[in-house]
Amino acid sequence: MESEVPPGEAGTELSGLLTGLVEGVPHTRSAVLLSIDGLVTAAHGLESSGAEHLAALAAGLYGLARSAGARFGDPGEVRQVVVELDRSLLFVSSAGPGACLAVVAAREADPAVLGYAMATLVKTVRPALNTAPRQPAGQ
């Protein structure tokens, strides 16, 4: 699989960090940094269309979790969404204001190890991951 990254030094740096996460945690398959509205910032382990699809799914899950929190009395920040499938795990976590980190791993992955690695990556590079909200045209 290829790593699809927007051009530029920041994208290359973020791609390298994602590569370290995917290759450093056993059974991890791919990772995508995205804006909360589903735009890919950087990716590793997926081709462009796969990264875009995962970003759209992750943004939707993140939005649902925020809505559930607001509806049921916890309108704070979403920390993490975990989806357990038969053969895979999907983690979506906050990566700073306006940004998320989505990671796909095989079922054999240790969720605690992967969650810790994700939190460490986010903490280390939070300033680079912040995505300003998009403004309507003309503002």
UniProtKB/TrEMBL annotation:
InterPro entries in the cross-refs: Mycobact_SerProt_Inhib_Rv3364c, Roadblock/LAMTOR2_dom
Signal peptide: none
SMART domains in the record: Robl_LC7 (SM00960)
SUPFAM superfamilies per UniProt: Roadblock/LC7 domain
Sequence ranges assigned to domain Roadblock/LAMTOR2 in this UniProt record: 15-105
One Pfam family in the UniProt entry: Robl_LC7
Highest taxon of the lineage: Bacteria
Record's protein name: Roadblock/LC7 domain-containing protein
Organism for this UniProt entry: Streptomyces cheonanensis
